[in-house]
Amino acid sequence: MLLFIGVYRILRYCPKASMLRLKGENGVFAEYVLVDKDWTVRIPDGLSYEQASPLTCAGVTIYSAIQKLELSPGNVLLICGLGGLGSLGVQIAKAQGLRVIGADVNQSAHDFLLTLPERLRPDLLLNPKYDKAQDLSLEIGALRDAGYDSFDGVDAAIICTDSPSAISYAISLLRPHSKLLLTAGPMDPNFSLLDFLFKDMTVLGALNGTRNQLKETMELCAEEGIKSNIFIERWDEGRRVERIMSGHARGKGVVKM
Q1: What pairs with residue 126 in β-bridges?
Q2: Is 63 domain-assigned?
Q3: Interval 7-21: pLDDT, tens
Q4: Residue 174, domain extent
Q5: CA angle 88, 111, 206 (to 5 degrees)
Q6: 69-117, pLDDT tens digit by residue?
Q7: Is 98 exposed, middle or buried (0-12, 13-18, 19+ CB in 10 A)?
Q8: Per UniProt, which keywords does this protein have (predicted)?
Q9: Cα(30)–Cα(141) distance, rounded to whole angstroms?
């Protein structure tokens, strides 16, 4: 098992890797696919096929990102971008005892999170258009445990959007000695190096996750009732896939064969 996990970790980062996906190898829309059992995860009871589907990419990516930050219950985590990755990240982080701030300019993203059970909702929702970093010190401080006497700001931030302003917004809310993790972002980010130097920040990246982490992700989501905002499309000779790829619909598109 240790050998297998080690090999898997190497293969994940192979620059020549080819994946079975929408824009990868043929076969992704077959009704049945033959795969090695060592590369699969059983869907736990209580988790539908439709809800399990986004976990194989968005779910395990944000789960592994949160793990990589090595936060403790009560720490404050900022998630910028509340789409497929970010909305799952809010719920997973809350289920693990973190205090969570969600930031997104789209009201529909806020609306979905507010439909969730209170225990899975973010502790604070921000719209960067209106909620300026310099005005949020007291609100962030109110999320801290009694007796907290360290720096103002959040302990870590995860970027889940390609918005050019997301990184700078997150940096403005991070405290000194914090962590910034990128699961997405603009290809040519624009920020000041001085922010990283004078705040002594650690910058990390995350690429999906391991088979073990996918298993843990699915089990956690089944146990805690964590859900994606999904819409289901029929195959319809591929025409519905084009609608999903167009980006006009909100939420995660699931194709049902």
Answers
A1: 103
A2: yes
A3: 455 566 777 666 666
A4: 56-205
A5: 25
A6: 999 999 999 999 999 999 999 999 999 999 999 999 999 999 999 999 9
A7: buried
A8: Metal-binding, Oxidoreductase, Zinc
A9: 51
Domain contains 122: yes
Q: For position 66, which CATH number holds?
A: 3.40.50.720
The DSSP string of 45-100 is TT--HHHHGGGGTHHHHHHHHHHHHT--TT-EEEEE--SHHHHHHHHHHHHTT-EE
Give Dmax (Cα) for the chain: 60
Using CB atoms within 10 Å of the CB of residue 213, give its burial: 0 to 12 exposed, 13 to 18 middle, 19+ buried. middle
- Non-local CB neighbours of 147 within 8 Å, separated by 6+ positions: none
Domain membership of residue 61 (yes or no) is yes
Report the half-sphere exposure of 178 (CA within 13 A, side-chain side): 26
Total number of domains constituting the chain: 1
